[in-house]
């Protein structure tokens, strides 16, 4: 694909394209940029006294009769006595975990220490964890981490755990986050108090760190960003106790605060050329996860240049090959994630200047790039086209792929037609019935139908965000049925706590509103883009009014 800039007709066009599609003229930030932020405020102080004031409002997942939890967390629960008669009311101290065929016993090297090949003996020595905290620690390792990704470089198990071992704030945040899940299986007052203790301690340590200058030094931000990721992730999955829908969600405020730290500690300041920038594995994982939280929220929030002008340039540091590598923490490559932020920025600019002729030019450039977009991973060099990927899939009797490589490829590829749909509908303002939208929707539906929604191959790499965009674009019943089946399986028996329930509720309300309020009007190709009906913005207003800002990660 030709990456040369399009014909530039004026200096203003050059400046706009350079800002909106920075990979055309990508350059590292200058040193003065590092001084633009004051100390970052602690967004988590509001809930520092009691993160879990009560257990009464928790919506607990349905536990299957055999004790298997096989969704975004992976474990098998059974009582020490072997009695599975009452699996719906397990106690953490009275059941064991089974992982990959290995029974983990309280007597096998610690509460849940056996059968974890990634860890050396006595791994937790030196952390001064009591028995309950050891249970929480190994819950993260045994149950949470296996549900994060299929790629071997598991950020949550390697980078996050390694940082939490040596960083007090990150460790307390990890233990607090583990209780966000454990409280579903041991809803006791003792565990609730333990959860609040760890959260409160993490918030206090975070506050101290945010007021130290060295926190913002290049290479010194990993621990504090990991702690913030764990705390805001707790708000994402504890959706019953979020702020009221009229207020900015804590998870979004937290991700923006973490992004400011990533900006300040950007290693790009130390290099002359973007392709030479070196980042640690922790920095890459932190950057991709924080960016994904905010970027995936932008399609369901009102347009504002202030909130879209930050273009997450640090996602693109390194070579072009690096930028196209699928990251397990998000299930997509940084370049494609970055394109979503560019699309939102174009929509915001068009709202400000409806007569702009530069926005359609920039949007067309993005459309061209998506048409030939390539991604790869450590497990696969990728495919030259959608057709080649589909031909490589071997489907089981249920029409699903059954190997981790194809699941990784299909999950990542689904973001491409999702980006096309988002570009067509929010920037070009095309209706859902437009042939371009339907063409991209067809590819996205193909990808989603072939992906498992439960079992060992279902992890957080699953394309939750593309599935949401698929649901929005679907007005025909056969397409909506694909989305409906995905949500119903993900929320069905043997599943677990996640951010999915409020999104599924919102989608069902949204379908009713779209059918009633958004008419599929004829599309005039000659009409100025800024003069077309901005129906997506009307939809966002309705969505925020009825459901608040949705987390789509």
Order of helices and strands: HEEEEHHHHHHHHHHHHHHHHHHH
Uncertain runs are 1-9, 80-90, 100-118
**Helical percentage:** 40-55%
Category by helix and strand content: mainly alpha
Question: Widest sheet: strand order?
Answer: 1-2-3-4
Roughly what fraction of the amino acids lie in strands? under 5%
Largest sheet: 4 strands, antiparallel
Mean pLDDT: 87
* Distance between the ends: 30 Å
Rg (CA only): 23 Å
Number of domains: 2
What is the strand tally? 4
Number of helices: 20
Shape: globular
Pfam families: Fungal_trans_2
Main location: nucleus
Organism: Lasiosphaeria miniovina
Protein name: Fungal-specific transcription factor domain-containing protein
Provide a descriptive summary of the structure in words.
This protein is mostly helical. The chain has 2 domains: about 300 residues, no CATH class; about 180 residues, no CATH class. The chain is built from 20 helices and 4 strands. The chain has a 4-stranded antiparallel sheet with strand order 1-2-3-4. The longest helix has 22 residues. The two termini are about 30 Å apart. The N terminus is likely disordered.
């Amino acid at each position: 694909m030709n990456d040369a800039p399009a014909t530039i007709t004026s200096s203003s066009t050059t400046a706009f394209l350079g800002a909106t599609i920075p990979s055309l003229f990508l350059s590292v930030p200058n040193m003065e940029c590092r001084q633009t932020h004051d100390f970052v405020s602690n967004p988590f102080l509001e809930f520092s006294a009691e993160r879990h004031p009560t257990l009464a409002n928790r919506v607990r997942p349905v536990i299957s009769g055999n004790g298997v939890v096989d969704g975004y967390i992976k474990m098998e629960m059974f009582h020490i006595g072997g009695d599975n008669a009452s699996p719906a009311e397990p106690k953490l101290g009275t059941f064991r975990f089974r992982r990959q065929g290995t029974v983990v016993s309280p007597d096998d090297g610690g509460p849940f220490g056996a059968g974890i090949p990634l860890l050396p003996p006595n791994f937790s020595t030196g952390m001064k964890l009591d028995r309950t905290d050891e249970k929480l620690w190994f819950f993260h390792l045994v149950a949470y981490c296996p549900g994060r990704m299929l790629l071997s470089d598991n950020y949550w198990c390697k980078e996050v755990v390694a940082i939490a071992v040596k960083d007090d704030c990150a460790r307390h945040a990890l233990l607090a986050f583990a209780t966000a899940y454990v409280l579903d299986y041991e809803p006791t007052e003792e565990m609730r108090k333990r959860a609040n203790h760890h959260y409160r301690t993490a918030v206090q340590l975070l506050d101290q760190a945010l007021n130290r200058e060295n926190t913002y030094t290049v290479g010194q931000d990993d621990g504090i960003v990991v702690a913030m990721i764990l705390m805001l992730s707790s708000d994402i999955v504890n959706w019953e106790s979020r702020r009221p829908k009229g207020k900015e969600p804590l998870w979004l405020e937290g991700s923006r605060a973490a992004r400011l730290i990533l900006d300040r500690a950007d290693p790009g300041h130390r290099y002359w050329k973007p392709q030479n920038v070196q980042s640690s594995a922790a920095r890459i994982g932190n950057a991709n996860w924080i960016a994904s939280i905010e970027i995936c929220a932008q399609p369901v929030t009102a347009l504002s240049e202030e909130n879209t002008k930050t273009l997450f340039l640090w996602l693109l540091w390194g070579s072009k090959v690096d930028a196209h590598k699928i990251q397990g923490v998000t299930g997509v490559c940084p370049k494609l994630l970055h394109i979503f932020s560019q699309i939102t920025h174009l929509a915001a600019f068009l709202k400000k200047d409806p007569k702009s002729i530069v926005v359609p030019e920039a949007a067309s450039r993005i459309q061209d790039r998506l048409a030939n977009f390539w991604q790869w991973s450590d497990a696969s060099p990728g495919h030259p086209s959608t057709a080649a990927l589909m031909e490589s899939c071997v489907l089981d009797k249920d029409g699903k792929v059954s190997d981790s490589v194809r699941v990784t490829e299909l999950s990542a590829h689904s973001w491409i037609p999702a980006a096309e749909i988002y570009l067509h509908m929010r920037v070009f303002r095309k209706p859902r019935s437009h042939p371009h939208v339907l063409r991209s929707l067809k590819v996205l539906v193909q990808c989603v139908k072939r992906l498992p929604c439960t079992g060992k191959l279902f992890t957080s790499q699953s394309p939750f965000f593309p599935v949401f965009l698929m649901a929005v674009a679907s007005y025909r019943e056969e397409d909506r049925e694909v989305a409906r089946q995905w949500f119903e399986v993900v929320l069905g028996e043997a599943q677990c706590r996640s951010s999915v329930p409020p999104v599924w509720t919102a989608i069902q309300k949204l379908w009713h509103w779209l059918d009633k309020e958004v008419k599929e009007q004829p599309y005039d190709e000659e009409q100025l883009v800024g003069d077309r009906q901005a129906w997506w913005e009307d939809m966002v207003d309705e969505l925020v009014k009825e459901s608040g800002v949705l987390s789509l990660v």
